[in-house]
Write a structure and sequence with these properties.
The complex is a heterodimer of chains A (310) and B (251). Chain A has 310 residues and is an alpha/beta fold. Chain A is 35% helix and 30% strand. Chain A is built from eleven helices and 14 strands. In chain A, the strands form three sheets. Chain A has a six-stranded mixed beta sheet with strand order 6-7-8-3-9-10, with helices on both faces. In chain A, strands 2-1-4-5 form a four-stranded antiparallel beta sheet. In chain A, strands 12-13-11-14 form a four-stranded antiparallel beta sheet. In chain A, a hairpin with a 2-residue loop joins strand 4 and strand 5. The two termini of chain A are 34 Å apart. With 251 residues, chain B is mainly alpha-helical. Chain B contains 13 helices and no strands. In chain B, helix 7 (97-130) runs antiparallel to helix 8 and helix 8 (142-164) crosses helix 9 (169-186). The radius of gyration of chain B is 20 Å and the shape is globular. Classes of the chains: A alpha/beta (310), B mainly alpha (251). Chain A binds chain B through residues 45, 48-54, 70-71, 73-74, 76, 78, 80, 82, 84-86, 88-89, 97-98, 100-103, 105, 145, and chain B through 2-3, 6-7, 10, 14, 17-18, 84-89, 91-96, 248-251.
Chain lengths: 310, 251
């Protein structure tokens, strides 16, 4: 569905995307993950035909996004990051306008407008002026507009940004259900979102793709440290000082709460130091009420990969 | 074609939604009313061989209203889309660049034409109350309006170009103002500088808006003028298209 080969975008003095190559197959939901300024929005804008690349090749549904721009655009629905909408139109009006721009008319247009309004739950605001809508509704109208011509591919730039937790959940559910019939490329820096909705994740940093894999696999790949959590009554002992002496411990931080010390202990990866910490606690006669090891999360992967060069 | 029509419908409704449209209409009516009053007053003072149509269309009020209206109606055309970011959703829909430009141009032109409709009333009222015709010869009423149409095309295209160059509406208005008034003033050179070469005088006389209105308001329809303005309009729209494409496709 998407083929990108050695895509490069340079601005004077800055390389936004550097020789990017990837593919997205039909039916996949792929997440583009990366810090701000990594090149996510730039890549999406190039794919949607809004701006040209400096060099390289990109195609959507087999059509080159530069040479066959109009054809490529027919196959995709794009939701930009800031969801630009015409404030002076009403929701119905706007959806009908966009639908007819995309080639729908007559009965089909009417049916599709009703269908996307239903899908994105914007029925209650269908006659309101767009300038009066809340952010959540704006986002949903934008999404409805992107879906209106039943595109094969959806490109969503940070679709849940600025939404409240309820709305985020609704949009995520919607994206998951859409994934059954459409191919989706979305970008975000909310990592849990990617874990929940995406079948594959591409981490992009400084214009290059660092890794591309399923979320579960990514977590297994990293060399970063794990965290052991300890909650204990340590009496007069300073837990930080004592635990730091255990070989393999990278760092300890502790906060006191109602007499209990809550410690976060960073240990070398692939080491399970719970036994050593337990023995230390027995030795010093601490009372333990929690001792667990956190598995590395996608956030750890993200931080390690994108901060490694800083 | 259908897409062009869709775009055009939306652009026109955007015009009439914005309060600017009604403010412009209101001020335009006031200026035109003043212009007409002035024309009648002039004719009242002393007999003249000019008809009221001629005096109306050659007065200073008329030209002020005419020249100032273009920056105001065209400034928001492209600049607003650039600023709001709606240009992004517009250009990622399967529409061609020229369709966008032509639809905006036509919408602005249509709005401009509706500004002039009420003035037709003045001459009807004049004829009714004055018991005499407002015009001297047959072509005198529709000739100036025909000229207004072709000159309007030209000036609206100028405004479109100005708007496509910037995302700031004020800057667009200023550029349009400079271009519109600049063009008009250059043609005044003929009246001020009498010693320039005959070639220069001839060229200026060919393109001068004042001179065109002078002959058209007399009922004399110069076909050179009717070719000049539309061709200049096409040239300006082509330049606008290039500017728009440059902005969009610079790699």
């Amino acid at each position: 569905m998407i083929k990108v080969e050695k895509l490069t975008k340079k601005y004077p003095g800055v390389i936004a995307i550097d020789s990017l190559s990837f593919e997205v197959d039909k039916g996949e939901i792929v997440g583009f993950l990366g810090p701000n300024g990594a090149g996510k929005s730039t890549t999406m804008r190039i794919l949607s035909g809004f701006m040209p690349a400096t060099s390289g090749f990109a195609s959507v549904a087999g059509h080159d996004v530069f040479r066959e721009s109009i054809e490529a655009r027919r196959h995709l629905g794009y939701l930009p990051e800031n969801v630009p909408l015409y404030g002076d139109m009403r929701v119905n009006e706007y959806l009908r306008y966009r639908g007819s721009l995309k080639g729908l008319f007559g009965g089909r247009l009417r049916k599709r407008v009703e269908a996307v309004k239903e899908l994105c739950s914007v029925h209650e605001v269908e006659n309101k002026l767009i300038s009066t809508l809340s952010k959540g509704f704006r986002q949903r109208v934008g999404l409805a507009e992107a879906l209106i011509h039943e595109p094969d591919l959806l490109i969503l730039d940070e679709p849940t940004i600025g939404l409240d937790p309820n709305q985020i959940r609704q949009v995520r559910e919607l994206i998951k259900s859409l994934g059954q019939r459409h191919t989706i490329l979305l970008s975000t820096h909310i990592l849990s979102e990617v874990e929940i909705t995406c079948s594959r994740v591409m981490i992009i940093n400084r214009g290059k793709i660092e890794v591309s894999d399923a979320p579960e696999n990514l977590v297994g790949r990293i060399r970063t440290s794990a965290t052991v959590r300890l909650e204990a009554k340590t009496g007069n002992d300073d837990p930080v000082e004592m635990i730091e002496r255990v070989p393999g411990v990278k760092s300890v931080s502790a906060t006191e709460e109602e007499g209990w010390q809550r410690c976060a202990i960073r240990v070398e990866a692939n080491l399970d130091l719970r036994e050593e910490i337990f023995r230390l606690a027995i030795l010093r006669r601490w009372t333990i009420r929690e001792l667990t090891q956190d598995k590395a999360t996608l956030e750890d992967v993200f931080v390690e990969l994108t901060h490694a060069d800083n | 074609m259908r897409r062009l029509f869709t775009l055009l419908k939306r652009e026109l409704s955007a015009f009439y939604y914005s309060p600017i449209a009604y403010i412009v209409l209101f001020l335009f009516l006031i200026l035109n009313g003043l212009s007409f009053w002035f024309a009648v007053a002039i004719l009242n003072r002393a007999p003249s061989e000019n008809t009221v149509v001629q005096v109306f269309f050659n007065s200073v009020f008329f030209w002020i209203a005419y020249l100032l209206v273009f920056p105001v109606i065209t400034m928001r055309l492209f600049s607003e889309e650039f600023k709001l970011g709606t240009i992004e959703t517009l250009m990622t829909a399967p529409v061609r660049d020229w369709e966008v430009i032509i639809s905006k141009f036509l919408a602005a032109l249509a709005f401009y034409l509706t500004l002039w409709l009420p003035s037709l009333l003045y001459f009807l009222v004049f004829a009714w109350f004055g018991n005499r015709s407002a015009i001297g010869s047959a072509g005198q009423l529709w000739a100036p309006y025909l000229l207004l149409f072709v000159m309007g095309m030209f000036n609206v295209a100028l405004g479109c170009l100005a708007s496509a160059l910037t995302s700031n509406q004020i800057v667009a208005a200023m550029i349009a103002l400079v271009l519109t008034i600049g063009y008009f003033f250059i043609t005044l050179i003929n009246y001020v500088v009498t010693s320039s070469s005959p070639v220069v005088r001839a060229i200026i006389a060919y393109v001068a808006q004042l001179d065109h209105m002078d002959s058209f308001s007399r009922g004399v329809i110069d076909s050179r003028v009717l070719v000049y303005y539309p061709s200049m309009t096409l040239l300006l729209l082509a330049i606008t298209y290039q500017a728009f494409q440059y902005r969009r496709w610079r790699a």
